[in-house]
Design a protein that fits this description.
76% of the residues lie in helices and 0% in strands. The chain is mainly alpha-helical and 483 residues long. The protein starts with 20 loop residues before the first helix and ends with a helix.
Length: 483
């Protein structure tokens, strides 16, 4: 259950220098756990941010789940493998533009505010998804169909590029320093829950209407449902207010006037971006996409497991694994972000080959229980690398360029290293004829991040992000409480 702690104390209140020492300590203690100036509950803050983000992940992953099904409708070919690779390339195109979305909406978030970027991203994502549900197929309009599909996937990627960074920053800048990993981990559940929702909607539609109807026109229904979800998301986000930390930063004149220049024009910041990318997010991305999407594609496209059984296997594994995002986020507040994320990368790299050999072994005859166990193990690796990463990224970059700076390595990692994983792995399999050879890619990237992250990336657990906006008197008073 999302916590409902009241945030009635604003961190902008002054400490009375003449107050008794005990009163000063109490006032400083409230600053040490910063509160929203608007008086909203932390539960609402998390729920509002997570609801919109979950809807955006649902929108983005609909095509991903339906790639093997939609490929022949938009990329017909006499060679099924060629058609599927074209579908995976379109899947990757949505990820390719995510770094651009990070720059566009990151600039808006750091310059104007976190909330306005939120509203823009969910509007663009929802509109693109609904439009995808109205697209004619190749059979009706020829080459225009795949061109329009690629264009809409790029618009979705642009929107998602601005969404995640905003959600992570929004929650983190409301949360107390000592529980930032725990509170931001609720945002981390949305990607997996968005995938689960997409699987559930697609499966129920196909089972209710039948395969023939689904292929003829009903594949559009999951996309069109997004119109209702968009209305819900806009209603929720209209009630959100700016984060107290950014409001104070802007009021003090400390906000960046040129976020792109400040973020990308600094050698020091580029060093942080590259360390975050190669030491954390690249490995996190391949573990995420291997443990969920590649596992699904491996079951359906490689092992020829029926779509119902495959969706059930992956869906149940996602439900079992989801609480571990919260567990690992909370644990990272105690032992640090790095041990958990790096441990997840290493365990994944060492385990993928035997896990996928096991999946092949239990596919025919199908042993659903064994397959669920094998996929769940992969989802647990996902929760380890992904649960603490939002808190890590927020703490790794300064407040005035936080939205832009953290979005760049996150979306390059997940958009390029992760998003192209099915395509790259598919090419390796096609070139070698070995169905397990595609695992070389995620194993190699996960090991790369483990080495760089372990030896070159600093631990961030003890970073106090509110210290950037405290004045000297407040900083001294808060230090007394923390000592």
């Amino acid at each position: 259950m999302i916590p409902s702690t009241r945030l009635d104390q604003t961190p902008t209140e002054r400490i009375d220098p003449d107050a008794p020492d005990e009163d000063e300590r109490k006032a400083a203690a409230k600053r040490a756990s910063p509160a929203a100036a608007n008086g909203a509950s932390l539960g609402f803050v998390i729920g509002a941010a997570a609801a919109g983000t979950l809807i955006e992940w649902y929108d983005f992953y609909l095509y991903a789940v339906l790639t093997p099904f939609l490929a022949p409708l938009f990329f017909p070919s006499s060679n099924p493998a060629t058609s599927l690779l074209a579908g995976f390339a379109t899947f990757g195109a949505g990820f390719a533009v995510r770094p651009l979305g990070a720059l566009v909406f990151g600039r808006i978030g750091d310059l104007v505010g976190r909330k306005i970027a939120f509203v823009l991203t969910v509007s663009l994502m929802g509109g693109s998804t609904v439009a995808a549900g109205l697209l004619p197929t190749y059979q009706r309009v020829g080459l225009a169909a795949p061109i329009l599909l690629v264009l809409l996937r790029c618009l979705q990627g642009l929107a998602l590029g601005g969404e995640y960074g905003g959600a992570a920053v929004y929650v983190a800048e409301h949360a107390p320093d000592s529980k930032r990993g725990y509170y931001t981990s609720w945002i981390q559940t949305t990607a997996t829950l968005g995938l689960f929702l997409a699987l559930a909607v697609i499966l129920s539609t196909r089972l209710t209407l039948g395969d023939a109807t689904f292929k003829a026109w009903a594949w559009r229904i999951p996309f069109l449902i997004s119109a209702l979800l968009l209305v819900l998301a806009l209603y929720v986000r209209a009630r959100m207010r700016e984060t107290p930390l950014f409001s104070r930063l802007k009021a003090a004149g400390k906000a960046s006037k040129s976020p792109l220049r400040d973020s990308l024009g600094s050698r020091r910041n580029w060093r942080l971006i590259l360390l975050a990318l190669f030491g954390v997010t690249a490995g996190q991305a391949v573990v995420w996409y291997t443990g969920q999407f590649y596992a699904l594609f491996f079951l359906t496209a490689t092992l020829k497991v029926g779509f119902v059984q495959a969706y059930v296997i992956v869906g149940v594994s996602l439900l079992i694994g989801t609480p571990f995002f919260i567990l690992f986020g909370a644990l990272s507040d105690r032992i640090g972000r790095k041990p958990i994320m790096m441990g997840g990368c290493l365990l994944a790299a060492l385990s993928y080959y035997p896990l996928y050999r096991g999946m092949a072994h239990f596919a025919h005859p199908l042993n659903i229980g064994a397959e669920i166990a094998l996929v769940t193990a992969q989802v647990l690796f996902v929760t380890a690398v992904y649960g603490p990463v939002a808190a890590f990224l927020v703490e790794f970059f300064p407040a005035k360029i936080r939205y832009t700076s953290l979005s760049v390595p996150y979306h390059i990692g997940n958009g390029e290293f992760g998003g192209w994983l099915p395509f790259i792995a598919g090419v390796i399999v096609a070139a070698t004829g070995n169905v397990f050879a595609g695992l070389l890619y995620p194993i190699g990237i996960a090991l790369l991040s483990f080495v760089i992250g372990t030896f070159f990336v600093a631990e961030t657990k003890d970073v106090r992000i509110w210290d950037e906006v405290f004045d000297d008197h407040e900083r001294t008073a808060v230090a007394k409480v923390r000592s």
